[in-house]
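Protein: Copper chaperone PCu(A)C
Species: Piscinibacter gummiphilus
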Amino acid sequence: MTLTLTRRLLAALSLSALALAAHAHSFKLGELTIGHPYARATAPGQPTGGAYLSVRNAGAAGDKLVSASADVAASVELHEMKMEGNVMRMREVSAVEVPAGQAVELKPGGLHIMLMGLKAPLKQGDKFPLKLKFEKAGEVTVTVNVEGAGASHEMKH
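Structure follows.
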């Protein structure tokens, strides 16, 4: 292999590693790990958006996500979507249980964080702070990456 080809290969590998590191970000709060907070881009004039993440509890006691807040929206609520007969229903929930030794995924079509009264569209590539409040662990501010309108992530165990 020539020296030029080796340098190009190393540069490509370095860029790939940086892209993966930027894509998969997590935050710690005691025994809790908050994995890859993200939101989907919204259309101009769209009044609501969603934020998604995973919470892994490595502790011996359960905890609850009891609230969230973000300056990008007038209000933030914890929501659940589920099928009732042939109809998809969405409703606010008072808390999201995070059992001891388990993980919970907030994702499109299930539990999620609803951003109500968006102050501006969420644009792909932007980031915003989201404060999460847990019943026992306390509060942590995470960085939410705004991804494409159809973004979806599966939790890795």
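Remarks: The two ends are 38 Å apart (CA to CA).
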